[in-house]
Amino acid sequence: EVQLVESGGGLVQAGGSLRLSCAASGFTVDDYAIGWFRQAPGKEREGVACITSSDGSTPYADSVKGRFTISSDNAKNTVYLQMNSLKPEDTAVYYCAADSAHTCAMGVIPAAAFDYWGQGTQVTVSS
């Protein structure tokens, strides 16, 4: 059974940092494109970052470029999202997702392409 479990969310002050984890089971993250998305209340789901280990692609949304870093630990079958210099507008539920058919080489893959999703973790940034 394919499963993605996010963790690491919480409440942080503006300027602070959090590291989100996406633990995968039932498949190997090295064989998939893994994306991080976020959705704030009343807004559409936004692609934040994407990683494909096979080609080393790690594109980011402009809104997080230079502040967020996506990485993969294949030994732990886990993908991380390190979030620094957090802003109140980063407040959202963050989701990770897995896509077996595409690569991140052309940018963050649209949400509709992803096959599997985690349950999400809340990130709240106070001003």
Key traits:
6-stranded mixed beta sheet; 4-stranded antiparallel beta sheet; globular; mainly beta; 127 residues; single chain
Query: Percent of residues in helical segments?
Result: under 10%
State the distance separating the first and last CA atoms.
40 Å
In sequence order, what are the helices and strands, one letter per element?
EEEEEEEEEE
Q: What percent strand?
A: over 45%
Radius of gyration: 13 Å
Ranges where pLDDT stays below 50 over 5 or more residues in a row are none
Question: How many helices does DSSP assign?
Answer: 0
On the 0 to 100 scale, the average pLDDT is 96
What is the number of beta strands?
A: 10
Major sheet: 6 strands, mixed
The general outline is globular
Going by helix content, strand content and strand pairing, the class is mainly beta
Provide a descriptive summary of the structure in words.
The protein is mainly β and 127 residues long. Helix content is 0%, strand content 46%. It has no helices and ten strands. The protein has strands spanning 3-7, 10-13, 18-25, 33-39, 46-52, 68-73, 78-83, 92-99, 116-117, 121-126. The strands form two sheets. Strands 2, 4, 5, 8, 9 and 10 form a six-stranded mixed sheet that branches. Strands 1-3-7-6 form a four-stranded antiparallel sheet, with no helix packed on it. The radius of gyration is 13 Å and the shape is globular. The chain starts with a strand and ends with a strand.
